[in-house]
Known about the structure:
The complex is a heterodimer.
Chain A: H1 2-5, H2 16-40, H3 44-47, H4 60-69, H5 75-106, H6 112-122, H7 131-140, H8 147-151, H9 158-171, H10 174-182, H11 187-198, H12 200-216, H13 219-225, H14 233-240, H15 248-283
Helix pairs in contact in A: 2-15, 4-15, 5-9, 5-12, 5-14, 6-9, 12-15, 14-15
Chain B: H1 2-13, H2 17-32, H3 34-61, E1 63-64, E2 74-75, H4 79-85, H5 88-119, H6 126-133, H7 135-138, H8 141-151, H9 158-165, H10 180-207, H11 212-218, H12 225-236, H13 238-253, H14 257-262, H15 280-289, H16 294-325
Antiparallel strand pairs in B: 1-2
Amino acid sequence: MTTFANRAPQDTPGSWKTYLGLTIALLVAAFPVYWMFVIATSTDAAVSQIPPSVIPGGEFLNNAREVFTLQQVYFAASLINSFIVASVTTAATLFFCSLAGFAFAKLRFRGRNALMVVVILTLTVPTQLGVVALYIVMGKLQWNGTLLAVIAPGLVSAFGVFYMRQFIAHAVPDELVESARIDGANTMRVYRSIILPAIRPALAVLGLLTFVMAWNEFQWPLIQLNGTEFPTSMVALSDLASGNYVIYRRVLAGAFLATVPLIVLLLAGGRQLVRGIMEGAVKS
Amino acid sequence: MSLTQIRPVAQHQSPPPTPGRAKLWLHRFDNKTIPYVLISPFFILFAVFGIFPIIFNGVVAARNWRLDDPDRTGWAGAGNFTRLLQDEDFWNALGNTFGIFILSSVPQLLMALILASLLNRKLRATTWWRIGVLLPYLTPVVASTLVFSVFFNRDSGMANWFLSLVGFGQETPLDWRAEKWSSWIAIATMVNWKWIGYNALLYLSAMQTIPKDVYEAAAVDGAGPWRQLWQITVPMIQPVVVFTVILSTIGGLQLFNEPMMFDENPQSASGGSDHQFQTIAQLIYKVGWKDLDMGYAAAMSWALFLIILIVAGVNTLLTKRIGGDR
């Protein structure tokens, strides 16, 4: 007993209980997504069967075809729109936040520290509570009901600036920037040839986090795009699930289709996502 | 003569400074102005789409502002706020929001601590476990809530099937959406499912910064893993615990997606047939974009803002107090 606790937890090998607990956690985490797939591949009869079936059926293509051909839901367009919204948001966030992070980490200018404090303070502002006024602002700009209105508020993020600043401050030595300066490189040249290559890992992390959040965004796109012919996939899903008679296999085929891109991202960039979330925690 | 001799020399010398001056100016511009150019997109966009709406919200809240009738305008003074105090829907939504918040935040953070302590061992395939618990965080809430809707379905749902296995609800299956308590549990289950893994990773990263000798010193007491977790690990990661409490307060009190999509008719924003699980964020959406009463919706947003501030403050103090006692 005493010898067991002698070591720090991270040096203690996991016992069978640890693995059992983790396996249960993983099953609980994965089951809803798996079951989404099961229902998406089933017939109506299989969905209402008791006990519920947990084995996939063969109807996925049929169900998916129904989703895509439904009038007034615009599901195919919605997937494209979600891609546009998430990609533009991600690209802009990476560009603007890396520029600002670079300035805060490596350039000297008056008010730098005060402005950085402002960035950190804005991290805590629940901007979601401004949706009513934001809608009025978009109305003045004549953007209501357009993709532009959905995209514009997400183009920058305080977290992104903060994250980039921290990463650049650690990853790029001051001497490297200085010597490039002495060689006559201007600021943008330094950004392009020294900063950008050094921060690729951070760009991957921030890019993944931003893409996921933009893809999953529901409230603001719903306000903007509900009832238009170009919803995002989350808005289209809420449309699909509305009505007097909900056909689960069809709704969940849609839900699954809208989840697949993120599962692909998790498999491809899971390592980076984990690292990003864990680093963000330590630094904030 | 000497003057004229000097002049050509001076003229001869003056051309080089001209490009030099331009270069100098460029250099100064690069040094003095470019930094502000680089940070300006963030500040401009955040000011226009982040800060200004929050402030402008206060103006809208003090006015009559209807989307369907632009002529009904003018100052309402405190009208929207006094109306709020007497609005049964608002108090109902406030109760629902708090009920769901407590049912979701407390188990969420406790389970996350336990999961983090499981992950904080020497494991095979370390990264894959971490990626695995992140799956719910990635899954769109809109999509996962639809699965949970099937799970909590009255007639063929898996939840009722489980209940019947242990001897409940065989006569009349439980209609999870019908009652406050059951719909709150259902929605809280979805919130817990989504956020436990994410919070566990936050805790895990803090746990790994605890110096190892802290554990070695405490081993004299013969603390087992369970006591080790609550007596050493949790107090050591208290700042991150406070951080997650604040995060889950801000997120939990603005809960929107789950109650929206759990409704039999998501587009109605009514939160059940009798508003039994309508949250404040949902009510703001309904008042603003179904009743088209922007002034009143803005007042509600401000009220929610205040409530979040107060609750986040109280929770922070509580967490610090509990952590400090250990």
